[in-house]
């Protein structure tokens, strides 16, 4: 083969390869358009609903020192995180010196709604207790237990839970003369007799009474 013929044959081969490559590239699908279109007013994200209820029991009684999240739906400028002051009150935007102590979260939310209704149309308020530290959220144990202290209350708590949390009865405890002091709905003290020795040492579960936030358990010393 002459030199000229070889050059013509090589040029023809390269041209054929170029045509095949161009054909393959044109057959590939176009890449998707990654540019996001701005959402229209019809597809705007709706306002977030109120947050879920707090982890505390629904009948939890708010007390001094508790931390509260006051959430006003559709009005973020009125939402606030506030402590319950020693005087038992809180202050939020448009609501000053609202009494919080002695109320459940739902009761306080309704009271704030009533006050906000003077400024906002149909306000919807949720109260979350995010720092339950008041004495109303504890069981106070004094007397003949190994570790007298205030025990944080939780839903479903019983006498046995409280006694175990304080290390159990001492050897000098008169467990069957123990008393549970509790506030009634009018704020008066009522005294309940409990038989801790029968519960702890004899396993009589019928003595395992439920406790409530704010209860005081008194365990006296045995007489010798």
Description:
Helices cover 23% and strands 23% of the residues. The chain contains 4 helices and 10 strands; from the N terminus they run H-E-E-E-E-H-E-E-E-H-E-E-H-E. A hairpin with a 7-residue loop joins strand 1 and strand 2.
CATH topology name of one domain, in short, is Outer membrane lipoprotein wza fold like
Strand content: 15-25%
Number of helices: 4
| Strand count | 10
Main beta-sheet annotation: 5 strands, mixed
Order of helices and strands: HEEEEHEEEHEEHE
Mean pLDDT: 82
**Which runs of at least 5 residues are low in confidence (pLDDT < 50)?**
34-46
Name the shape in a single word: elongated
Q: Briefly, what CATH class of one domain?
A: Alpha Beta
The CATH fourth-level homologous superfamily of one domain? Outer membrane lipoprotein wza domain like
Rg from alpha-carbon coordinates: 36 Å
Level of helix content?
A: 10-25%
Spatial sequence of strands, sheet with the most strands:
7-6-10-8-9
Instruction: Tell me the span between the first and last alpha carbons.
Output: 128 Å
Q: Structural class, from helix and strand content? A: alpha+beta
Brief synopsis:
By secondary structure, the protein is an alpha+beta fold. It is built from four helices and ten strands.
């Amino acid at each position: 083969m002459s030199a000229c013929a070889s050059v013509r044959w090589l040029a023809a081969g390269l041209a054929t390869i170029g045509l095949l490559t161009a054909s393959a590239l044109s057959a590939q699908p176009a890449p998707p358009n990654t540019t996001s279109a701005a959402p229209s007013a019809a597809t705007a994200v709706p306002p977030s609903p109120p947050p879920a209820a707090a982890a505390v029991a629904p009948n939890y009684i708010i007390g001094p020192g508790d931390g509260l999240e006051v959430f006003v739906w559709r009005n973020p400028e009125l939402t606030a995180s506030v402590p319950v002051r020693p005087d038992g009150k809180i202050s939020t935007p448009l609501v000053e010196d609202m009494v919080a102590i002695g109320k459940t979260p739902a009761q306080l939310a309704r009271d704030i709604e009533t006050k906000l209704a003077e400024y906002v149309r149909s306000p919807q308020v949720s109260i979350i207790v995010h720092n339950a530290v008041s004495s109303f959220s504890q069981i106070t144990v004094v007397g003949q237990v190994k570790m007298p202290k205030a025990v944080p209350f939780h839903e479903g708590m019983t006498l046995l839970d409280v006694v175990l949390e304080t290390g159990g009865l001492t050897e000098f405890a008169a467990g069957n003369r123990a008393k549970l002091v509790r506030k009634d709905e009018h704020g008066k003290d009522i005294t309940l007799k409990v038989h801790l020795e029968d519960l702890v040492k004899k396993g009589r579960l019928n003595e395992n009474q439920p406790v409530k936030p704010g209860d005081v358990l008194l365990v006296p010393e045995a007489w010798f």
